[in-house]
Recover the amino acids of this structure.
């Protein structure tokens, strides 16, 4: 691990090999956790993205992936699901997910990790859903995309009493909304501002960028893996899929979160080698997750 400052380190491949141990021969799907991918609406069904995220979660090693969507998009999402299971929430007249405490409890039942926010849109009850999740779900919750937009319009202090381990995964614009600090200021001091934010709200922050910053307000890891080919729609969804998949069978920590960013970066680099920085798309990264795992297991060699 390369030391940058007293509590700031750059992640290297040897630091994360422990997360990719070979599995016992008598393993079964129950050993590696059930995760949830919660999102979607009629306007932004994101059928393929939701399916890809759940596929990524399985590629990242979880045992079962449950896609939780409003019933308004069942027909568009279902054809893209193969190994995944499906849970339907009620929807309003505009196709947005609505809050139902009992159904939400069933949707979250037996989950070890949840990814929340992809394609939710601007539903009127998003904040109620997120508030209930934060107040009751005692495992790992990854908040991304419209989940972050929802959170930025809520009282952020709700994070201080969250039941589970919260991981926020903003890019710079989303972090601007969350922190109420303008992007130019963030760019000038991104590491320290990320540390202060994570410490203030008692969460793990993964701030995306050419150098990804992962911090809990105490220890900070920098991940410098990735490539220009990943600068395309859907790359953040792939990362969220890896995050929820790996946290199906790992406790949330700064290092486990940084490991996910590293894995995504290496997979993206390998995809770019095949598809080029121009022609690469986000789903190409999924194809190379297995190769990236081999790379990490072999200490940086394929």
């Amino acid at each position: 691990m390369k030391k940058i400052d007293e509590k700031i380190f750059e992640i290297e491949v040897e630091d994360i090999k422990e997360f990719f141990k070979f599995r016992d021969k008598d393993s079964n799907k129950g050993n590696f956790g059930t995760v949830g991918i919660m999102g979607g609406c009629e306007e932004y069904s994101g059928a393929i993205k939701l399916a890809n995220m759940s596929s990524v979660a399985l590629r990242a090693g979880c045992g079962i992936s449950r896609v939780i969507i409003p019933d308004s998009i069942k027909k568009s999402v279902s054809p893209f699901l193969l190994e995944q299971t499906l849970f339907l929430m009620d929807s309003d007249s505009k196709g947005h997910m609505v809050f139902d405490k009992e159904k939400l409890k069933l949707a979250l039942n037996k989950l070890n990790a949840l990814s929340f926010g992809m394609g939710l849109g601007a539903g009127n009850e998003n904040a109620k859903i997120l508030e209930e999740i934060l107040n009751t779900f005692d495992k790992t919750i990854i908040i991304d995309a419209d989940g972050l937009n929802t959170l930025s319009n809520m009282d952020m202090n709700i994070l201080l009493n969250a039941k589970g381990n919260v991981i926020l995964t903003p890019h710079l614009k989303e972090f601007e909304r969350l922190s109420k600090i303008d992007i130019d200021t963030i760019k000038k001091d991104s590491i320290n501002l990320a540390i202060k934010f994570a410490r203030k709200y008692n969460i793990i922050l993964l701030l995306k960028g050419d150098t990804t910053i992962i911090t809990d307000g105490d220890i900070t890891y920098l991940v410098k893996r990735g490539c220009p080919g990943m600068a395309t729609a859907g790359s953040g969804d792939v990362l969220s899929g890896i995050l929820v998949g790996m946290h199906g069978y790992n406790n949330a920590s700064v290092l486990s979160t940084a490991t996910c960013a590293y894995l995504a970066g290496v997979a993206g680099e390998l995809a770019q080698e095949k598809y080029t920085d121009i022609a690469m798309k986000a789903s190409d990264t999924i194809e190379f997750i297995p190769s990236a795992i081999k790379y990490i297991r072999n200490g940086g060699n394929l």
